[in-house]
């Protein structure tokens, strides 16, 4: 793509995100006790046949049985270039294909990425919610710095957190899921509030990782599938 084409794409993407923003609701549209099946979503990239390809893996976890009940994936060529702040447009085709393969629809989807913690409050978790029609959460391993605002490190204890406040608005939360490990950066996607987001994430933490179980295993699956695809090349 040349610069003019990229600029046209940027304008189109910005307009789409602006149109969706009024539909974002940072409040629960469910009862927490009714939440059972949680999906973790991750996308990884690789080069194949001289083109950028991607693989999306979704792992569904049963909160009651405390086990993974389904894994699906999709892969294909990535046709949208990487543009900071517009990751959803790059990843949504693969996510949609993977979701269609699920036999068990999740109650909540957690994305390896941001939600409301985004330049225009439209990270992958938020934007994907309109296709999924389900509550969504964003979980990032690194901090997206917006308007030069740094985060405050939470205390070194389990479930300690500090809110990320930018322009007097809470964008997300820095959450310490385990003692002596780096915090994660969580944000609402859509149809969920930040306190409930925190509760759900903490229900999904075990001794093996600072990341919630479905997201961690989705990440593991993307790397495994990517390796398998590259081996067949």
Automatic annotation (TrEMBL):
Q: Where in the cell is it found?
A: Cytoplasm
Alphabetical keyword list? Cytoplasm, DNA damage, DNA repair, Endonuclease, Hydrolase, Magnesium, Metal-binding, Nuclease
Specify the superkingdom: Bacteria
The residues that hold Mg(2+) are 42, 112
This protein's GO CC annotations: cytoplasm
Question: Which cofactors are named for this entry?
Answer: Mg(2+)
* UniProt entry tagged with the keyword DNA repair: yes
Q: Name one Pfam family in it.
A: Endonuclease_5
Any one GO biological process: DNA repair
Q: What is its EC number?
A: 3.1.21.7
Family according to the record: Belongs to the endonuclease V family.
Recorded protein name is: Endonuclease V
Q: What organism is the protein native to?
A: Bacillus safensis
């Amino acid at each position: 793509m040349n610069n003019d084409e990229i600029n046209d794409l940027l304008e189109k993407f910005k307009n789409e995100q602006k149109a969706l923003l009024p539909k974002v609701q940072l409040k629960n549209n469910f009862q927490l006790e009714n939440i059972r099946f949680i999906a973790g979503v991750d996308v990884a990239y690789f080069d194949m046949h001289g083109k950028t390809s991607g693989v999306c893996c979704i792992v569904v976890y049963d909160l009651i049985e405390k086990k993974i009940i389904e894994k699906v994936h999709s892969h294909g060529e990535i046709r949208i270039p990487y543009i900071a702040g517009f990751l959803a447009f790059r990843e949504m085709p693969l996510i949609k294909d993977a979701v269609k393969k699920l036999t068990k629809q999740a109650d909540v989807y957690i994305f390896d990425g941001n939600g409301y913690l985004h330049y225009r409050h439209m990270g992958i978790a938020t934007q994907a919610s309109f296709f999924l029609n389900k509550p969504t959460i964003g979980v990032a391993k690194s901090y997206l710095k917006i308007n030069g605002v740094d985060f405050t490190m939470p205390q070194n204890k389990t479930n300690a957190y500090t809110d990320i406040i930018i322009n007097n608005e809470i964008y997300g939360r820095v959450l310490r899921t385990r003692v002596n490990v780096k915090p994660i950066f969580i944000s609402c996607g859509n149809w969920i509030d930040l306190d409930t987001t925190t509760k759900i994430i903490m229900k999904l933490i075990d001794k093996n990782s600072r990341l919630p179980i479905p997201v961690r295993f989705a990440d593991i699956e993307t790397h495994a599938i990517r390796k398998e695809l590259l081996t067949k090349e």
